[in-house]
Write a structure and sequence with these properties.
383 residues; alpha+beta; Quinone Oxidoreductase, Chain A, domain 1; 3 domains; five-stranded antiparallel sheet
């Protein structure tokens, strides 16, 4: 049979002739019709992981096809059945993990296209108890990725604890995420799809997402501070980096060093710097490094940029007080540093929430709850 084989780590796949595998009593021989391509295949060929794959190796763990031979112990499958061969080739069935339904943690497991030759071949040997039948109406090309990307997202939803009618968020509508959206809808969940770009969000809507959120559109903190008594001016922008006059597109690369910030002016006779710090720390998560929710990168770091030594002293003391009190489970990672040049964000970023709160799902689903939380916590400080 023809097969694509890798003979050394970081080597190149070569098409060669190999013997058709012999069928054991617990095996089935599958004539491969299609096989998905997964990044794990590249890791296997490169030997990237501590537990190394066999070598030489035929990769591929998303193979689908038709059974041509069946081992004598396999009674539930027949020649001609359409089946898929998953990543988990087999497990021991007796250890604590297997007995608890967690075979993927079994220390004696074998994996298709890793410790066992996979489906980058005309024929693939599989354990009869681990292959899965494929419905006649599902094409082979459509079915193949379900045996890795599909299983991964389905398992995540299954163990999430979510019940039909409840909300789940799918962050990223890519190779796995677009399958997760479909599984989630089939399981009866309400789905929020989070990504950026019109095409990704349109795909999520087409696949059934109830709400789509573009995580790059708005800074929620601007909407909060605009409602604080004593705050006279709020402006979204960028600070703390090395690039002159950055655009939002520049900021999104994560290479400018700038953070997305709000700059505001306030009347110290009405609200103090301490009170502003309290609002700041209570309306975001200051314990996540270079991240806020689905937004990841140094531009999303938690930061206080002070203008005077007194502000620095107050901010550092307040941060230490909160850490000592263990208000959060994790340590506060908020950066406290001297203010540098402030670059105002583009016009469409300014007052984004109040201009879009009735027509943008991100505003209504993400920012409005933050505003409501702020209103509950700081009623006396509302305008």
């Amino acid at each position: 049979m023809k097969a694509a084989i890798n003979t050394q780590y970081k080597g190149k796949l070569e098409i060669t002739d190999l013997p058709i595998p012999e069928v054991g009593i617990n095996d089935v021989l599958v004539k491969i019709a299609a096989c998905g391509v997964c990044h794990t295949d590249l890791h296997a060929c490169h030997g990237d992981w501590p537990v190394k794959p066999k070598m030489p190796l035929v990769p591929g763990h998303e193979g689908v096809g038709v059974i041509e031979k069946v081992g004598s112990n396999i009674k539930h499958l027949e020649v001609g059945d359409r089946v898929g061969i998953p990543w988990l080739y087999s497990a021991c069935g007796h250890c604590e993990f297997c007995l608890d339904g967690k075979e993927t943690l079994c220390l004696s497991q074998h994996n298709t296209g890793y410790s066992i030759d996979g489906s980058y071949a005309e024929y693939c040997l599989a354990h009869g108890d681990y292959v899965v039948k494929i419905p006649e109406e599902l094409g082979f090309s459509e079915a193949a990725p379900l045996f890795c990307a599909g299983v991964t997202t389905y398992k995540a939803l299954k163990v999430s604890g979510a019940k039909p009618g409840q909300w789940v968020a799918i962050v990223g509508v890519g190779g796995l995420g677009h399958l997760a959206v479909q599984y989630a809808k089939a399981m009866g969940f309400n789905v929020i799809a989070v990504d950026t770009g019109k095409e990704k969000l349109a795909l999520a809507k087409e696949l059934g997402a109830d709400i789509t959120l573009d995580f790059k559109e708005v800074v929620p903190s601007e909407a909060i501070f605009e409602q604080v008594k004593g705050v006279t001016e709020v402006q979204s922008g960028y600070m703390g980096g090395h690039v002159n006059k950055p655009t939002y597109k520049d900021i999104c690369t994560g290479t400018t060093g700038h953070a997305e910030v709000i700059q505001f002016k306030y009347d110290a006779d009405i609200i103090s710097f301490d009170e502003l710090l309290e609002i700041f720390w209570k309306t975001h998560d200051p314990t996540t490094l270079n991240r806020q929710g689905a937004d990841v990168g140094t531009q999303y770091r938690s930061a206080v940029f002070y203008n005077t030594p007194e502000q620095q002293k107050i901010a550092e003391a307040y941060k230490q007080k909160l850490n000592n009190a263990k208000i959060w489970d994790n340590t506060i990672v908020t950066e406290i540093t001297a203010a540098s040049k402030f670059y105002p964000a583009e016009a469409y970023h300014q007052d984004y929430y109040f201009n879009n709160k009735t027509k943008n799902s991100y505003c209504s689903f993400v920012i409005t709850p933050k505003i409501e939380k702020f209103e509950q916590l700081f009623k006396d400080k509302m305008k």
